[in-house]
Amino acid sequence: MEHEETKSTVPKHQVSSVGVRENEVCIMEQAANQTTKSVGVRSSIIVSTRQRGNSLLKYLRNVPWEFGNIIPDYVLGETCCALFLSLRYHNLNPEYIHLRLRSLGQSFALRVLLVQVDVKDPHFSLKELAKICILSDCTLILSWSPEEAARYLETYKCYEQKPADVLKERTEKDLMSRMAECLTTVKYVNKTDSCTLFTTFGTLFDLANASREDLSLCPGLGPQKAKRLYDTFHEPFLKTSTMTFQ
């Protein structure tokens, strides 16, 4: 985000020139492509010189950072960057963020719009920014203080080289756990029931071929659960609609 003082000195007739703005965007896109090549992989956050004076910089303490000649406000990795936007500034200059997003081009796989909520009634503006981010393939992150904004930047940088294992679903390898995970998807069937069924029938094949009466004889199961299990195993995977031709 550029400071309001510098933005307010720009004459209106210069901003309204469509041709000049298009040229600026093209130049910025080319520069952004060069930025990703020159930055590469670094241990520090690269901060644009336009961010001088941003109060969040004094809270960047857990990772090193340095100023650089870059198009985004922050480069957090080889494929990740961030733009910083004050919501108060956005309300005064609504066209600013459009130009900044376009200037990024397709240089970064992950583009973060870090918004500092510093107005009393932010709902309308945030709804508008959410739509902009969806259309621009950009991730919207909200912060309510410079300290919180700095923590987000540090976290993105710290997790730059981390694998996605912590986000993946953990699948148990033992048969009992996998059987319980499968059977508990049936309504009213719990893990105790699945353990009883596994002990009684031994295999999923024998369980699927059991009669409704055999299922209801299992301790704690009862006729209602037995009916649901039996129907689950014997209903077709795809429902076919019956059509009447005249």
Automatic annotation (TrEMBL):
Q: Does the keyword Cell cycle apply?
A: no
GO molecular function ontology, one term from the record: damaged DNA binding
Q: Which UniProt keywords apply?
A: DNA damage, DNA repair, DNA-binding, Nucleus
The keyword Transit peptide belongs to this UniProt entry's keyword annotation: no
Supply the Gene3D superfamilies for this chain.
3.40.50.10130, 5' to 3' exonuclease, C-terminal subdomain
The role this protein plays is: Non-catalytic component of a structure-specific DNA repair endonuclease responsible for the 5'-incision during DNA repair. Responsible, in conjunction with SLX4, for the first step in the repair of interstrand cross-links (ICL). Participates in the processing of anaphase bridge-generating DNA structures, which consist in incompletely processed DNA lesions arising during S or G2 phase, and can result in cytokinesis failure. Also required for homology-directed repair (HDR) of DNA double-strand breaks, in conjunction with SLX4.
| Descriptive protein name | DNA excision repair protein ERCC-1
Originating organism: Xenopus tropicalis (Western clawed frog)
Gene giving rise to this polypeptide:
ercc1
